[in-house]
Design goal:
With 111 residues, this protein is an alpha+beta fold. The chain has one domain (15-96). Helix content is 61%, strand content 18%. The chain contains two helices and two strands; from the N terminus they run βααβ. A two-stranded antiparallel sheet has the order 1-2. Helix 1 runs antiparallel to helix 2 (53-94). The radius of gyration is 29 Å and the shape is rod-shaped. It starts with a strand and ends in a 6-residue tail after the last strand.
């Protein structure tokens, strides 16, 4: 009896877009970003009628720290999108596997 072999890719699960997994984390970052901006405005408003080197130094430090934090929030959101895309690719790759089928070739003469 002759043997045959066929190699193919088999999709075990349907391909999914899992990039929405990052949205929950990004929503929390948006809340944190809004809180940072709100806190920055609140502190600046409290010091609005004040002056002096110490006040100026405090406001500059608040601005610097706030800007760094806002930049980090944006970078982290971009990272989350990237990681979610990679996660989607990894999961979808795992759902697709190479399968090798081995079979016997039967002819009318074999029966």
């Amino acid at each position: 009896m002759e043997m045959g072999e066929e190699s193919l890719l088999y999709q075990f699960e349907k391909i999914e877009d899992l990039t929405d997994k990052a949205e929950l984390f990004k929503a929390e970052l948006n809340k944190l970003q809004a809180f940072t901006e709100s806190l920055n405005r609140l502190v600046k408003n409290k010091f609005e009628d004040s002056d002096g080197k110490l006040i100026t130094s405090i406001i500059e430090e608040i601005d610097t720290t706030s800007n760094k934090n806002l930049q980090l929030f944006e970078e982290t959101k971009m990272d989350m999108k990237y990681f979610a895309t990679n996660y989607t690719e990894i999961i979808n790759d795992m759902n697709m596997q190479k399968v090798i089928l081995h079979y016997e070739i039967k002819t009318m003469e074999d029966e």
